[in-house]
Known about the structure:
By secondary structure, the chain is mostly helical. The chain folds into 2 domains: 1-142, no CATH class; 169-313, no CATH class. Helices cover 66% and strands 3% of the residues. It is built from 11 helices and 4 strands, in the order H-H-E-E-H-H-H-H-H-E-E-H-H-H-H. The chain has helices spanning 2-11, 13-35, 47-68, 74-101, 112-138, 147-165, 175-179, 211-219, 221-235, 245-271, 281-303, and strands at residues 39-40, 43-44, 189-190, 209-210. The protein has a two-stranded antiparallel ribbon with strand order 1-2. It has a two-stranded antiparallel sheet with strand order 3-4. Helix 2 (13-35) packs antiparallel against helix 3 and helix 4 runs antiparallel to helix 5 (112-138). The chain starts with a helix and ends in a 10-residue tail after the last helix. The mean pLDDT is 89.
Amino acid sequence: MKAAIRRAVAWHPALMTVAAVMVLCAVVSAVGLLVDPRTVLGAPLWAKPLKFSVSILLYAVTWAWLIAHLPRWRRLAHRLGTVIAVSLVVEQALILWAAAAGTTSHFNVSSPLHVVVWGVMAVSITVLYLCTFVTSVALFFLRLPTPALTVAVRLGAMIALGGIGVAFLMTGSTPTQLTSPDGIVGAHAVGVADGGPGVPVLGWSTTGGDYRVAHFVGMHALQLIPLVALALTVLARRVTRLRSDTTQVRIVVIVALAYACGTVLLTLQAVAGQSVVHPSGAVAAVAGAVLLVAAAAVVLTLLRRPAPVLRMT
Length: 313
């Protein structure tokens, strides 16, 4: 067990340290949910720090592992990983500070102090995005144990960049904020005020659009799509038609394309001010079409004559 921990820490000490800190933050936030009844914008005060702790934990571990396996640009990626680690710590520290103070962290410009805090958070997330962009490009030199996993990581990283980028759509002033300034610039929700009825735990608006849906779904493509590749590797032991590397790669590409379409659709749904739990007929139809086409493409791929082993370059 100790040897496994040492190997994991060696992937990228700074990012793995952040992961360990996020475990502690998650525990503190969970305790806060139990003992602190305060709310902010209608949501439990410690729910946001808890969600960010888990998300940052996944992000840090994933990139620590990927950077450690890069055949090229590893030194640059390692340095950028350290910058990412610092940015993540700054972001989470300010979120925890705001929770302890009983106020909002994002979009808050109600006082000079909050202007500085929000400015620092905005800079840190921008730096994180730029560093992630470069390290994502480096993944195109990465070769993992199977071609499907290699392709899954590359496509997942590209989709994740789009998902993270959705966050920048939240930073503009809403029409209400332009006409009646209230110390808040930006919002998660579209068409309704932040803090209304939301999905349990996640808090996504059930009465209007919410950019956080596409942000969350897209950002974690880097974890979910590789899981599809790993699942195919396991299933290949039982399903003969999945033993071809080419077949597995094709299925991963289909899943990734469907996932990307879903992320774009969720973004457009939010822009239209439409809740994710109450899709319009048009949105439901497009979503159904994407799923149907993807399912048909997977079936056709499986019915094809098994292709030869694919050699990655």
